[in-house]
Amino acid sequence: MKTLALNELRADAPMLCAGHAACPGCIDALSARHVLAAMGPDTVAVIPPSCMAIIAGPQPYSSLKIPVYQPTLEASAAAASGLRRALDAQGKRDTQVVVLAGDGGTYDIGFQCLSSAAERNEDFLYVCLDNEGYMNTGAQKSSSTPHYAKTGSTPAGKLTRKKNLTEIMAAHGVPYVATASAGHMADLTRKLTKAKSMRGTRLLTLLIPCLDGWGVADDMGLAAARLAVETGAFPLVEVEHGERWTVNSAKTRPIGDYLAVQRRYRHLGAEQISALQDEIDAGWARLQRLAALNDTPV
Description:
Elements: H1 27-39, E1 43-46, H2 51-56, E2 68-69, H3 76-89, E3 96-102, H4 104-108, H5 111-120, E4 124-130, H6 165-170, E5 176-181, H7 185-196, E6 201-207, H8 211-214, H9 221-230, E7 237-240, E8 244-247, H10 255-259, H11 270-292
Parallel strand pairs: 1-2, 1-3, 3-4, 4-6, 5-6
Antiparallel strand pairs: 5-7, 7-8
Helix pairs in contact: 1-7, 3-5
């Protein structure tokens, strides 16, 4: 599908075409579809090397019906900053700039660039499609890979915890940082609408169960995404201006329910599962304390 000019698109036209190169049942493609629908046709996308770059395809032929710029893996935030300033110089203040990047290009290789842009409060929406590893190059671990998860580069399980990107970015004091999931669509849609209405650096991290990399059945992607939220492995939160924390989900199930649907955790024994449950419980308690600060008089 050849990318169309912005003035050729209807506001209600789908922004992601059928026939793209995603795996069957891919939550990455499903999530991108809803992100792009919320952003609308007056949008420019920045997509670094990632699963999303494979889904988008090469220019000028692309599965996205909006302009796409594919920078180097580390340069997404800088590219978005430059595009935003160029659009502003042309008087196109209403055109949205959105980054669609994986966790490798966000938590790891692109983090320095993202942090610098956040310090300047550059005006773009950065969407991290977090599948917790370098999935399109062999499912190696990233700093987003959770504790004990088995990957191509951690065959006995990762020995360190997942980086807490939400707290790190909230510490920059940017207008909006949030987590969301295609498994909780109303929450995702609300957060996209909210982020679109704001100015400055906004980060939205979406959990993307990787069917092949995680060892999840083709029809279980959304179920895994929901279990991640329900067990507290991926709580839904939002942080405004680095200060106001809101928890948008509840922890109602044990972590074992989430681990059981993934091949990457099948090597775990009862002791490691118990340790993971303790980590989840401690993280959940910390979120409750942060949210409680909203009601604490200064």
